[in-house]
Specification:
100 residues, 11 strands, 0% helix, four-stranded antiparallel β-sheet, Immunoglobulin-like
């Protein structure tokens, strides 16, 4: 579901951010735990996922689902999850909390 489009300039790169809300589980987890994002139109070619400004290891990517691992060095805090598909379209972030 697209609610609008916002354009941002970052380091001379134009990034198109789609206002798409995507469910994910769990909304919190420990370091090294797996997180699955469900949605549509992620594309079949793997993109990138960040917790805050930290890129995470994507372990599975399909048009309707992305799975990543919470990095072992993450500080216990709440971070936005940001997804960027292979075409450079970024989905607005959702919150994820790293717990003990």
């Amino acid at each position: 579901m697209t609610f609008g489009t916002k354009l941002f300039h970052s380091h001379r790169v134009l990034i198109k951010l789609e206002s798409i809300h995507f469910p994910f589980t769990p909304s919190s987890g420990k370091r090294k735990s797996a997180v699955q994002i469900a949605g549509t139109a992620f594309g079949t070619v793997s993109g990138q996922v960040w917790l805050g400004v930290v890129p995470v290891k994507v372990t599975a990517w399909s048009n309707g689902s992305i799975t990543f691992t919470v990095p072992s060095g993450m500080t216990y805090a709440t971070y936005p999850i940001t997804v960027v598909n292979s075409q450079g379209q970024a989905l607005l972030p959702r919150a994820f909390t790293v717990v003990r």
